[in-house]
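We both want to read discrete structure tokens more fluently, so let's practise on a single case. Would you write everything just below, so we can both look at the same thing?
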Amino acid sequence: MTRRGSWRIGTRLFVAQVIVLLAISISAGLVASAIGPRLFHEHLIEAGEKETSPQFSHIEAAFESANIISLSIGLVIALAAALMITWYLARRFSTPLTDLTDTATRLSSGDLSARATAAGGVPEFALLATSLNDMAERLENTEATRRRLLSNLAHEMRTPVATLNAYLEGVSDGVLTWDDDTRHVLERQAERLTRLARDLDDVSRAEEGRVSLDLSVHSLQTLIESSVSQFGPQFESKSVQLSVQVSAGLVRVDPQRFAQILANLLNNALRHTPRGGIVSITADRSADDISVAVSDNGEGMTSEELGQAFERFYRGSTARAEDKNGSGIGLTISRALAEAHGGTLTATSGGRGCGATFTLSLPSPHTTSSLRGSESLGTRHPHRTHGSTR
């Protein structure tokens, strides 16, 4: 037998409505029985009937009988109709609510694939189901990202840790001697682990909105020229031409974070552009935003690679072959920093051999009054330039 405390909401709603309807029926019957005959008696007297006449008591008895029968039939019909409507509404509320409860229970138990249907056509429940499904989808994506992050992190740490262990065991066993070459290898692997930990901290802060921004209005041309000047020797050593076409204009950014984004994009373009290639920086301005595009005529990307370009630890085959020390999250950090400024960072490519273009879009100075990172809870980090990914 089902205990009352475990009744579903539909059952409790139905029972509550039954009690209310019974109370209404009993109240109506009592009121009609108490007031109806008295009023009818007064009307008979006003109509000229004598209380002593033989018809008077017969008329009153007939009225009471007719009143009780008609009232009883009416109340039974009304009660039956009300109960049917209550049963229908209770089921209509109970079914989607039960589905929502079951979905929430499955989610809480770890089944992130659970989704609510919210059948029944109740708008409020449909909205609640949509919100619950959106939350479930975000949780599922977050869990997938977490698992991928742990897997990629283990992969990225495996090589430097293995190298450190091998060299330390070699030195301990006397197979290797402690000289400058050994010390250089160990320092390089330790530095790689340190950079990986630092990059992970940066990308986590940026994606969670905890990165601090020191926003101010600057000349876009000055910011770009300052960043480009630091890359002159690198481009010259690889015989890659760097073209800059930026008109004067103002942009409201954190100059160090902007330089960090641009440095990642330039590093990325240089890594994937062959000798004799060209990397160009152009800027466009509209009424609401400013776009800075870094384009190259290098190896390009497929549609699948475009979809993975901003994922943590993703690096194309060329990047893995040429830069074994890169952490593979430079573009991830850059996109998070762009979003912290209220902007976007997107990638386009015509395919293999067609080069690639990364476009940074930032709001114009008059539209940047409220930015996610302008008031951060995090601690400001010194400016650091990260290796780019692709």
The two ends are 64 Å apart (CA to CA).
